Amino acid sequence: MEIEIHVIHYLVISTVMMFCGVYGFFTRKNLLALLISVELMLNATNINFAVFNRYLFPGQLEGHFFSLFGIAIAAAETAVAIAIIINVYRNVKHILTDDITDLKG
Amino acid sequence: MGITLQEIAFYAVAVCIIVCSVLAVTTGKILRAATYLLFVLFGTGAIYGILGYTFLSAVQLMVYAGGIVVLYVFSILLTQSDKDMKYHIRRGKLVSVLLTTLIGAGLVLFLLVTNGFALNLIPQGDELPVEQIGQALIGTDKYQFVLPFEVVSFLLLACMIGAILIARKEEKKD
Amino acid sequence: MDYTILILALPLLSFLVLALAGMKMPHRVAGAIGTLSLGAVAVLSYLTAFSYFTAERTAEGTYPTLTPWNIDWLPFTQQLHIDMGIMLDPISVMMLIVISTVSLMVHIYSFGYMKGEKGFQRYYAFLSLFTFSMLGLVVATNIFQMYVFWELVGVSSYLLIGFYYTKPEAILASKKAFIVTRFADLGFLIGILIYGYYMQTFTFTPSEEQLMKAGMVLPWALGLMFVGGAGKSAMFPLHIWLPDAMEGPTPVSALIHAATMVVAGVYLVARMFPLFIGFAPSVLHWVAYIGAFTAFYAASVACAQSDIKRVLAFSTISQIGFMMVALGVCTSMNPHEGGLGYMAGMFHLFTHAMFKALLFLGAGCIIHAVHSNEMETMGGLHKYMPITHITFLIACLAIAGIPPFSGFFSKDEILTACFQFSPVIGWVMTIIAGMTAFYMFRLYYCIFWGKENKELHAAHVPHESPLNMTFPLMFLAAVTLIAGFIPFGHFVSANGESYDIHLDIQVAATSIVVALIAIGLATWMYAREKQPVAEMLARRYSGLHRAAYKRFYMDEVWMFVTKRIIFRCISTPLAWFDRHVIDQFMNFMAWCTQAFGVTVQPAQSGRIQTYTMWFLGGIILLTLVLLLF
């Protein structure tokens, strides 16, 4: 018994998710909302890894583990980012991107 | 040839993911955005399940849905940013963002469609055994991943320390 | 003769000490340091001269050329290197004596003259610097070392002329001196470069082979070097700086602008003399013509000046003209056949340094007494200042060429050399010698006799100077009295062999008669209380008198040439080109860069979202490009 779902369908989902993240990343001004968009993008890539692994190389596990590590790294990134955001909030009292333009030098 | 339960489940999950993704980036309240993200993550977990990667699915639920989203919610509350997020965005910028996003998405979809994937079958219920995952994680042979595993664990440790150090309240110097 | 290095080292050391720590010292100590080191230098110079001239002559009957010190300073190629060292030969030893004697006298004299002046220590520091550079110039082992010290001399002259730097005239005068001499030094430098380029050496005595290489360009090199010498020695038309240089303190004028630095040009020609004789006799004769014209021009200007230091300055120019003529009329290296002028010129350099320094120092005493340079404030000073009067008279008699004073002997040798060359030059120079006697006695009478400015003298009685000022006068007067009897030809002559000076009775008698007539004329015109003849002449030939008083408008000519011709026709278009083309091009480039910067600056907004958007846009574009092509 096999399920018949074309691989394109998975990829469409991940693409939509990815570009939703992109859209959010460009339009949001709240740093936390920005981070949420980043999470969406990360998720999209993780899905792709898993899907390709499953469909193209069912006997191996590289994609699977990439997804796994991706999750771990996303967790790490989120922890650090949130720590930074909280620190920014403490200093600037806002976490809007318009307020944080010091990168300009 | 009828539609199987798995297919129904997949399409339901797909619709859920797409709708929630769009909502997560368009909603005006950040707490809601976090909630929609949570649903997206649930959906992703479900897709892993459908693909047969139940272990990955479990990790996704635990780490993402259970850990990260909670972290989000806490930090949203901590930074008092759970207010209206409808900031004004300039029309020009909105247009360019939409254009970039749509062209990008269109391009990727075009590539996907024209690439001509012929794969549409996976063995159903062929679950990846946890034992195999465990062996792969601690082995040093080909297709075994002890080094990335250790690296990631080290990274997590570093991040934990870093996060604590950054977010810590500065001691008042007298 | 290793101690000769001290002759250079002591003044330099004294300059460094005074310049670095002088301001902390009391005046007396600073002056003492300078004077003592100069005294030591003078003693060493005399010692050097004594041991040099008492040493054995070589087989050819000449004194050997010694180089006690020499170091390779800047080696350019195997053959071409610039050395620094000390060279002793008859003329450099003679110059050592002249410089150290006059400099020592000036150092002693300045104790009295500069007493209580602000910047006393600075003054002594500069004097030491000047003495060091002048000594370095005369003992130079090669032409490039000479050039280096030549410029140092120019700098110290500039510093000392501008010593009273709060006076605008002094600043203008120092700038003028520096610019004019620098302008002439350009010729010198080009000459040196030609010399070094073609001969592959900087020494004064190149080998036959090297001389062959230079060939036709050697006259050009020597001519250009003479241009530098003419600038330093105030030859017409580069003389304009010297009268203005009198703005400096009077002892400085005595040292630099009468006795030592201004004869550097003569020394340069004497140094290159064998080359001039051997390869560029026509250039040498041009030196003579320029010298003769300068001597005449300066003598005629000196007759009409009213500032006593200006009279002396023009007299100096005129006498340097004499020396140049003496060198220029030479036709061979043999003093018996047309080479007499070399010895005569050097002899005149020696005696002139002594009596001209004496004249300037005497003028300094007079200025000290009446606080003015103008003749009208003087007159009848002989009763107030006996020592100054007597010494000044001795110097006047010497420069006028009356025996037995030193000037007579040296001038007589010059005239003899001129008559040997051509009677025309001989008579011209005799007449100029007569003019010299006339204007010097005009000066003498106007200062010490003539119409006394009683009003002024009653208000402030002129007084004789203190001993530290009169001692140098007496010393130099004594030297002037006896210097004529030095057997100079025995030490210095064109080919180095001993030469006995013998007076040509005919020439000597003529020159004495001319001088006596000129002195009598001056006595008749200026010695009395009223001066009707002089006034009448000045009235009748008012145009000529005015022109002579204005130095025949040479300064105006220079101003015209520089301002109207050089500035307007060359500098202004160049400045326009620089300002409107080159600068504008640079401005345009700057503007472009700025405009570009302003255009792209908004992209550097500091907003991570914008950056990412550009990034993504770029990726999309790249993908499209890859897809389409």
From TrEMBL, chain A:
Catalyzes what? a quinone + NADH + 5 H(+)(in) = a quinol + NAD(+) + 4 H(+)(out)
Enzyme class of the recorded protein, top EC level: translocase
**Any GO CC annotation of this UniProt entry:** plasma membrane
Q: Which GO terms describe its molecular function?
A: NADH dehydrogenase (quinone) (non-electrogenic) activity; quinone binding
Q: According to its UniProt record, where is this protein located?
A: Cell membrane; Membrane
Q: Which Pfam family is an annotated match for this chain, by its short name?
A: Oxidored_q2
User: EC number(s) on record?
Assistant: 7.1.1.-
Q: Which topology term describes how it sits in the membrane?
A: Multi-pass membrane protein
Gene3D superfamilies of this UniProt entry? 1.10.287.3510
Q: What GO terms describe the biological role, i.e. biological process, of this protein?
A: ATP synthesis coupled electron transport
Q: Where exactly are the transmembrane stretches of this chain? A: 7-26, 32-53, 65-89
| Keywords from the named record | Cell membrane, Membrane, NAD, Oxidoreductase, Quinone, Translocase, Transmembrane, Transmembrane helix, Transport
Family under the similarity heading: Belongs to the complex I subunit 4L family.
Per UniProt, subunit arrangement is: NDH-1 is composed of 14 different subunits. Subunits NuoA, H, J, K, L, M, N constitute the membrane sector of the complex.
User: Any idea what job this protein has?
Assistant: NDH-1 shuttles electrons from NADH, via FMN and iron-sulfur (Fe-S) centers, to quinones in the respiratory chain. The immediate electron acceptor for the enzyme in this species is believed to be ubiquinone. Couples the redox reaction to proton translocation (for every two electrons transferred, four hydrogen ions are translocated across the cytoplasmic membrane), and thus conserves the redox energy in a proton gradient. NDH-1 shuttles electrons from NADH, via FMN and iron-sulfur (Fe-S) centers, to quinones in the respiratory chain. The immediate electron acceptor for the enzyme in this species is believed to be a menaquinone. Couples the redox reaction to proton translocation (for every two electrons transferred, four hydrogen ions are translocated across the cytoplasmic membrane), and thus conserves the redox energy in a proton gradient.
Q: What is this protein called?
A: NADH-quinone oxidoreductase subunit K
Originating gene? nuoK
TrEMBL record, chain B:
This enzyme catalyses: a quinone + NADH + 5 H(+)(in) = a quinol + NAD(+) + 4 H(+)(out)
Top enzyme class, one word, equals translocase
State the Pfam families in the record.
Answer: Oxidored_q3 (PF00499)
Keyword Cell membrane attributed? yes
What kind of membrane protein is this, topologically?
Multi-pass membrane protein
Q: What is its EC number?
A: 7.1.1.-
Q: Where are the transmembrane segments?
A: 6-26, 33-55, 61-80, 92-113, 145-167
GO cellular component annotations of the record: plasma membrane
Keyword list, A-Z? Cell membrane, Membrane, NAD, Quinone, Transmembrane, Transmembrane helix
Q: Which InterPro entries match?
A: NADH_UbQ/plastoQ_OxRdtase_su6 (IPR001457), Nuo/plastoQ_OxRdtase_6_NuoJ (IPR042106)
Does the keyword Transmembrane belong to this entry? Answer: yes
| UniProt record similarity statement | Belongs to the complex I subunit 6 family.
Q: What is this protein called?
A: NADH-quinone oxidoreductase subunit J
Supply the source organism for this entry. Answer: Phocaeicola barnesiae
TrEMBL record, chain C:
The residues covered by the NADH-Ubiquinone oxidoreductase (complex I) chain 5 N-terminal domain are 73-124
* PANTHER family assigned: NADH-UBIQUINONE OXIDOREDUCTASE CHAIN 5
- Organism whose genome encodes this protein: Phocaeicola barnesiae
Phylogenetic lineage: Bacteria, Pseudomonadati, Bacteroidota, Bacteroidia, Bacteroidales
Which gene codes for it?
A: nuoL
Q: Which domain of life is it from?
A: Bacteria
One biological process term from GO is:
ATP synthesis coupled electron transport
Reply yes or no: does the keyword Transmembrane apply: yes
> Which NCBIfam families does the record match to this protein?
NDH_I_L, PRK06590.1
Q: How does it sit in the membrane?
A: Multi-pass membrane protein
Q: Can you quote a single GO CC term? A: membrane
Subcellular location(s) per record: Endomembrane system; Membrane
Q: What is its main location?
A: membrane
Q: Name one GO molecular function term.
A: NADH dehydrogenase activity
The chain positions of domain NADH:quinone oxidoreductase/Mrp antiporter transmembrane read 140-433
- Where would you find the membrane-spanning parts of this chain? 6-23, 30-53, 91-111, 123-141, 147-165, 177-198, 218-242, 254-277, 283-304, 311-329, 349-370, 390-409, 424-450, 471-493, 505-527, 611-628
- Report the protein name in the record: NADH-quinone oxidoreductase subunit L
Keyword annotations of the record: Membrane, Transmembrane, Transmembrane helix
InterPro entries recorded = NADHpl_OxRdtase_5_subgr (IPR018393), ND/Mrp_TM (IPR001750), NU5C-like (IPR003945), Proton_antipo_N (IPR001516)
What is the residue range of the signal peptide feature? Answer: none
